[in-house]
Write a structure and sequence with these properties.
The chain is of the alpha/beta class. The protein contains 5 helices and 8 strands; from the N terminus they run E-H-E-H-E-E-E-E-H-E-H-E-H. Helix 1 links the parallel strand 1 and strand 2.
Length: 223
């Protein structure tokens, strides 16, 4: 029997969103039982959700505390892209903070590295093409994104991948997903209904677990 520990993070609240999918989706997934996911035989999962402040200084320490407490095998961080038409799977995190608006701590770093002398960028550790294939079969609007911005989402994504790259004692998958605004109908100008975004979250978990247990011959499927 394989036990896979998963931590899914979100942000909240967003002052301009009545429904925050990066709060609602992780919370919904953490309340599901293993049999509500499509998992390989003899596999169970524990999903822990954590809501983080939109803070350059505090989002990563709070996530790291939960990741280490839960001895996570997979970490999926999520945020919101207000102009997105569907789910955006982030391919890379860049070593840059350049905020156009202050975070919740009234901090507004400008053109600063996230990690001094760190690599310019890190690639995701999630199997994005496998996830996109699931989305396509279920009619979930989605795309690959190479730009997680330069605000708190990207900063958290970079710190997560920088930390996981240094973990030589165990294998760990990590990545970032940007959800669109919640709308009533998928035919709206942009956004997706909440139930469809929760289904997308299930697909992400399903494929991450499969890839964790049985990696492909290539290191990661993002191309």
């Amino acid at each position: 029997m394989h036990q896979i520990n998963i931590v899914i993070s979100g942000f909240g609240p967003y002052s301009d969103l009545d429904i925050n999918p990066s709060y609602e989706v992780p919370r919904a997934l953490s309340l599901m039982q293993s049999d509500q996911f499509s998992l390989p035989k003899d596999t169970t999962i524990k999903v822990t959700s954590v809501m983080l402040p939109i803070s350059f200084a505090n989002s990563w320490p709070e996530l790291l505390e939960i990741v280490e407490r839960e001895n996570a095998n997979i970490v999926i961080s999520t945020g919101v892209k207000h102009a997105a038409r569907g789910v955006q799977l982030e391919r890379c995190a860049t070593n840059m903070m350049d905020a156009k608006k202050p975070d919740v701590d009234n901090r507004r770093p400008q053109r600063m590295p996230i990690v001094e002398d760190g690599p310019a960028a890190y690639w995701t550790r999630l199997p994005l093409r496998m996830i996109l294939n699931d989305f396509a079969h279920e009619g979930i609007a989605s795309t690959l994104s190479s730009d997680a911005g330069t605000y708190v989402c990207n900063s958290l994504f970079y710190r997560l991948l920088h930390w996981s790259a240094g973990k030589t004692d165990r294998r760990l998958l990590a990545g970032f997903v940007s959800f669109p605004p919640v709308v009533e109908s998928h035919d709206a100008r942009h956004g997706l209904p909440l139930d469809m975004q929760i289904k997308a979250g299930q697909d992400i978990v399903n494929e991450a677990v499969k890839y964790y247990l049985k990696p492909s011959s290539s290191d990661i499927l993002f191309e």
